[in-house]
Structures are given as structure tokens and as C-alpha cells.
Amino acid sequence: MLDAPLAPYLLWAKTRQPAAIDLAGSNLLACTIDDLPDVRETVDLAAPNDNGFAPVIEAIAARYGVGTDRVAAAQGCSGANFLTVAALVAPGDEVLVEKPTYDPLLGACRLMGARILRFERRFEDGYALDLDAIRRTITPRTRLIIVTTPHNPSGVSIDRAAMRELGAIADRHGATVLADEVYLDGANLVDGAPQRLPAATLDGPFVSTASLTKSFGLAGLRSGWVVAPADVAFRVRRTRDVVDNASSGPADRLAGLAWSHIGTLAVRAGRLLSRNVATMRAFLDAHPRLRVAAPPAASVVFPRLDGVGDAGPFVRRLVQEHGVAVAPGDFFDSPAHFRISLAGDGDTLERGLAEMEKALAAV
Q: How many Å apart are CA 44 and CA 47, to the nearest integer?
């Protein structure tokens, strides 16, 4: 029996007060049927997907430049993360997890009976990896190191050199690095963004997870994936045998269609995200009480409300008096902060920020 929720943020997200302007989620604005060409002609009730639907697996492998033996399908990125943890971690194993992080990652480790150790990604350091802290914390019992990049909640990316060194640290201790990269494709689509490569394209013990949800607006398909060394991908597939076995046939067929039009979907996503990132940067420049570690560059931003130790009252007033929902920083071990989604409709974001401006004036 569970005495407390394994993922408090998700419990809040599923039961929170509805808001007229919702900036708390982070899925890219959902596609309509008209956004995905040929969708009506594609839907079928069955698909051969015992080890993943072949057109989807092949498209992911091609995108990462790896063989299909290195790809495993999952129900969204959350499913990919859970399957990876379940495949690699046994009760009593140690897992190192960044702080702050996305709390279902912690919940998966708890469910598998892992001993969780945390290492800080500090606001004052721009949420960069503290590799020395990781070296001090890792032990021979460590099986997995978990990071998110772009970071959830801040949107800050881990640079290639730091990721490579993280892999070297893990390799020396017989551990694996799990990089949740669900926001990565979207971040690469923002105007002028540097093109960040997935961790799994590096040599070393890396697992990359992602989905079609956060960057392409197809949350309803629950199409996620794991890219890993071939032996790890095999273990993930065999773990899935006893979790949910396989995806929905219609969802797999639609995901295959999405991959065949990924360029069209990327243009749509890039247009949405580029506008919203620019809007948010301008708003932050005009409101110095909201401090960020770096200018927003991905689907989420995590401002700190300067001068308060707890932004919770502001977050509650924002939704109760102004109808604007943001994600409280409490769920990310950062009570002075809150997370804003930049992945939705641009007009909605602008209305939300106008209301936030009114709320800030009253603080």
C-alpha cells in the first residue's frame, strides 16, 4: 500500500483547480486532425507491433543515426523513463537524481525500491551540472544517474562536454546515464537555437528518452521511445512485456504517419515556440522581480519571485483572482519559483502574462 503519492506533481496536475488561462502544463499545443495530413485515411484498428511498430522504430533510429536494435517503444516519455528504470534498477540499488527534477522520475525509482541520492543543479550556477558533486556522491552501488535536458523545470540544457564527462563518471562506476530529453526537439526548433544532439548519440552508457508529445503536439498518441545501447534496449523491451506489452494499434499507425510528416510538424512547433520564447524574454526583461537562470530557450521557464521565500501565495492568487494557472515550485523542491509553459497558444500566453503583470503589481 502506498502511504503517499509517488509523483505529487502529477497528482496535483490531474486534480488542480481549472483555470481560464492555463500556463501550468507543458505539452505543445495539441494538433488538430487538419494539422496532420492524410490522417483520416490512415487509421486502422490493428498494427503489427510486438516489439514496436516498424515504421516508427525505423524513423526514430534514422533520426538518431542508430540501428533499430537500439530503439525501444514506450507509452510516452513517462513510460520510456519508467521502463528504463525498471529494466536497470533492482531494490536496494542506488540512483543519483538531479535536484530539482520532474518528480515522476523519483516516483519510478521509489516504486522499484531504489535508494535515491540527489545532486543539486543550483539556480545560482545557471542549473549547470556540478560534476564534482556527482563524483563525490556516486558509489559502487550506483546503477543509474538521471538528468533532464532541457532541464525540467528550468529549460536549461546540459552542454555536450558536461554530458560526455557525466558518461565517463558513470562508466567508471558501472552505471548508466538516463537523459530525459522530452523537450529537446522543441528547443532545437526555436529561432536561432543551437542544435543540441541527444545524449544517446555519444559513445558511452547513455539512454535518451523522448516522445511526440512535448515537441510536436501529439500527446494523445502516447508515442514515446528509448534510445540506448543495444543490450539495454533489449532489456527495456523485455521489461515492457510485463508492464503494458505493446501500444495501441491505431496510435502506432498515427505515430507512423506523424513521422512521415515530421518536417511539417516541426515547422508548426518551431513557429509556436519561437513566438512564445520571444514573448517570454520580453516579459522577463520588463519585470526584473522575476529572475531566471538563463533566458528562456525551451518549452518551459522557471522564474524565481525575487524577495520571497515562497511563491506559493502568489501562485494561488494568480489562479484564484486572475484565472491563470502555473506550476508551483514546491513540486520541484524550489518554493520561491514557479514553472510557466511556453508550449501553448501564443495569444493565450500573452493574455496570461498580462494578468501576471497585474498580480506582480500587487506583490
A: 8
Query: Which residue matches cell numbers 558518461?
Result: 167
* 92 in Cβ contact with 113 (< 8 Å): yes
pTM of the model: 0.90
**Residue 263 burial by Cβ neighbours in a 10 Å radius (0-12, 13-18, 19+):** exposed
What is the secondary structure of 332-363 as a DSSP string? GT-TTBEEEE-SS-HHHHHHHHHHHHHHHHT-
Q: At residue 120, what are phi and psi to the nearest 5 degrees?
A: -80, 135
What span, in angstroms and rounded, lies between the C-alpha atoms of 58 and 80?
17
Cell of 69: 536494435
Q: What is the pLDDT of residue 48?
A: 67
**pLDDT tens string 144-159:** 999 999 999 999 999 9
Question: Which parts of the chain sit beneath pLDDT 70?
Answer: 1-3, 40-41, 43-50
- For residue 288, give Cα distances in angstroms to 76, 226, 282: 36, 39, 11
Helices and strands in the chain, H and E counts: 13, 14
Residue 108 CB contacts under 8 Å (≥ 6 apart), including other chains: 6, 81, 82, 85, 86
User: Under DSSP, is residue 224 helix (H, G, I), strand (E, B) or coil?
Assistant: strand
* φ/ψ bin of 228: left (φ > 0), alpha (ψ from -120 to 50), beta (otherwise): beta
Residues 6+ apart with CB under 8 A from 261: 36, 37, 38
SS (H, E, C) 109-145: HHHCCCEEEEEECCHHHCCCCCHHHHHHHCCCCEEEE
b/e burial code for range 60-86 (CB count within 10 A of at least 16 → b) = bbebbebebebbbbbbbbbbbbbbbbb
